[in-house]
Design goal:
Structural class: mainly alpha
Number of helices: 5
Radius of gyration: 15 Å
Number of strands: 2
Helix content: 40-55%
Order of helices and strands: EEHHHHH
Distance between the termini: 32 Å
Shape: globular
Largest sheet: 2 strands, antiparallel
Length: about 180
C-alpha cells in the first residue's frame, strides 16, 4: 500500500523554496491566507498521520507533499509533548510554546530534511518560510489538541499517544535526545 499524498496542489500555488505555501484556515497571522475551504494541509496531515507514520520511505510527487511531510513530522513532535500533559489546557500551553520556539528552516544546520528541501533564495523568502512554518506549527498544535484530548475526561487519548514512538521516514524535527 502506498503512502498518502497531498491532493491540495494546484497550478497557481505559491512556492517558497521548493515547498508549497498552501492556504490554511487559521487565526494566527502569517503569509498563508485562510480561504475557508473544506479541508487544508493541516486537516490532511492529521487525517493521514496514523497511516503515513508507518512509512520509512516517502515518494515526493509535488511541492505540497513537502509541506505534508513537515506537518506530519511536526505532529510527531507535538505528540511527544502532549504525552506528558494531563489536561487540555496544559496541552494547549505546551503546543503554543512549541509553536513559537525557535526552529531551523531548510538550509540551516539542524534541519533534518535538508536533502529534500531547497533553502530559501533570499532574505525575504527566508522570512516568508519561517513565518509560514510558524503559522503551520501554531495552527497544527491547536487542532491536534482538539483531536487528542477527550472532551468528557479532559485526558489525552491513548489511540493518539500510541504513535509517540513512531518516526515518519525515520526522521525527527527535534535533535536527538530531546
Amino acid at each position: 500500500m502506498p503512502a498518502y499524498h497531498s491532493s491540495l496542489m494546484v497550478p497557481e500555488t505559491r512556492l517558497v523554496g521548493n515547498m508549497a505555501l498552501l492556504p490554511i484556515k487559521t487565526q494566527f497571522k502569517g503569509p498563508a491566507r485562510g480561504d475557508g475551504g473544506e479541508s487544508d494541509i493541516i486537516d490532511e496531515a492529521i487525517y493521514y498521520f496514523k497511516a503515513n507514520v508507518f512509512f520509512k520511505n516517502y515518494e515526493i510527487k509535488n511541492e505540497a507533499d513537502r509541506t505534508l511531510i513537515y506537518v506530519t513530522l511536526y505532529i510527531s513532535e507535538c505528540l511527544k509533548k502532549l504525552q506528558k500533559c494531563s489536561s487540555r489546557s496544559q496541552g494547549e500551553k505546551e503546543m503554543y510554546t512549541l509553536g513559537i520556539t525557535n526552529f531551523p528552516i531548510p538550509g540551516e544546520p539542524g534541519f533534518p530534511l535538508n536533502a529534500m528541501y531547497v533553502k530559501p533564495a533570499n532574505k525575504q523568502e527566508d522570512e516568508t518560510m519561517r513565518s509560514y512554518l510558524q503559522q503551520l506549527r501554531q495552527e497544527t498544535g491547536l487542532r491536534l489538541c482538539d483531536r487528542v484530548f477527550d472532551p468528557q475526561t479532559d485526558k489525552p487519548s491513548k489511540w493518539w499517544l500510541c504513535f509517540v514512538k513512531r518516526q515518519f521516514m525515520n526522521k525527527s524535527l527535534s535533535a536527538p535526545g530531546q
